[in-house]
Task: structure prediction
Amino acid sequence: MLILGINAYHGDVSAVLLRDGELVAAVEEERFRRVKHYAGFPREAIRACLAMGGVDAGDVDAFAVSRNPRAHLWRKGLFALRHRPSPSLIRDRAANARSVGHIARTLAESVGLEQSRVSGRMHYVEHHAAHLASSYFAGPFEDAAVCAIDGFGDFVSTSSGVGRGTRVAIEQRVFFPHSLGLLYLALTQFLGFPKYGDEFKVMGLAPYGEPAFTDRIRQLVAVDSTGQLRLDLSYFTHWSGGMTMTWADGEPEIGPVFTPKLAELLGPARRPQEPLDARHEAIAASLQRAYEEAAFMVLRALHARVRNPRLCLAGGCAMNSVANGKIRAETPFTDVYIQPAAGDNGTALGAALHVWHHGGGERRFQMRHGYWGPQFDDQAIAAAIDARAADVASTRCARSRISNESDLCEWTASRIAAGQVVGWFQGRMEWGARALGNRSILADPRRRDMRDIINVRIKFREKFRPFAPSVAVEALDEYFVGAVPDPFMIQVYPVRPEKRDAIPAVTHVDGSGRLQTVSRETNPRYWALITAFGRKTGVPILLNTSFNENEPIVLAPGEALDCFLRTDMDVLVMGSHVLEKSRQPAAGSGQPAAGSRQQLPAAR
Result:
């Protein structure tokens, strides 16, 4: 049985393909459109999944959509009668609902089928049911507590319950307009980060500040002993219509969701281009603390109800890796599973898994790695380089090929150990927001200057943004405190105090690191590279950041090559093909050649 899962007309639209309950392919639309968090309909992602599965749209038995416009209709109507939201809010919601209602027609047109062949196979899965299914049915547990925390989807912001066998029972929901995700969004906007998905910037900023505003931010949200939460709505506009949302084709946009009353509480809001100061850092630190307190209260209440030590977590808030790393210390849960696309992109997977299991399918799948996207062979890579031969030559790049994998990893490790920054493009593209070693920029974690070099000269982004350590799983306990293997880079743990000076480029200001464990079984080439670097340096860890520059992670060889040529990376390794920029000055100029940079100081 083939099931195509779809997240559409929301942020991070995506598609997945299941065959008899096993995941075959999964990819976000943003990778094709080159627009972060692309909203609208995932036409290209659908076509890519069908191609990776080697099937036609007509072969698909079920189309699973992670939205259900009919969910909680009476609650929506009651809310409208009580609060009389603005016409603009009603108009935005109605337009989005119409788009979802026309998915069968849009899907049929995009894959060349008669609408009648699609409509009868459509399954609409409530947004939060899809979130929960995406974690539980991809996880390793036969039974577990389940929880999803996000902004909103189908009028719900938080859902929890229990998964057993092939069923997930939702036992509690928090409904619109109350939401922890909305709380984080409001403060993110207040701190001058207005773009959809900017919450991770605030999480990265938080360790620089003292949580001096925590008591004030606590006034915005209350959680009772059952896990129900409420916002003080006088600080927010999303419920009354004083905001706008755009989910059409392109980058999603959400207008300001906080009222002027928030400035009375915290001081003036920061404009996007204003410098960050100590007050902004303190607000970020306070938000993170208040969010963690509220989220952990929700999780403790869930554990008290279900008495199960295993947790499967999903929703956009499950991307808060700092909080995730504290769950086992701050709640009774002893085992936690979060799949790499925990946000709305993952609801495509959840909808497909929900349809499979609720249709009588057995549990067959466990997501142990995140490599579910398209891949390109050496022939395609060579063709992409050939197409840009003039640009490669003008950037003074040496081109070679190293066919032996062991030699390739040894050569690349030596370049990283010498202080060079390497673009690493291998195998199938990652599923989810994190680069996990197949579409990554890699560097030496021992160098104190490497964070600034990459942020300022390659990524062109804020200096406070941290980088992740990719660690060979065998060395996890040697470098981190209380950590468990995490192949998805979605949990933060303390770096051992005695190791922080050894890996300063991946140790955040508070002594923590958002780690990714890499094993021989799940990514043998990346593991071989890390272990080769470990043999050379004594440190089996690489600095890993996504292969991009203010854009979605690169998908194809041409995009990787373009990013390499326009930034200050030193080396590009795509499959077995290698490009290395010359460090020699142009003849007679006395200056570094275009696209190159001076040799960096030796590693400490």
In short: The chain has 22 helices and 23 strands. Residues 278-306 form the longest helix (29 residues). The domain at 173-337 is CATH 3.30.420.40 (Nucleotidyltransferase; domain 5).
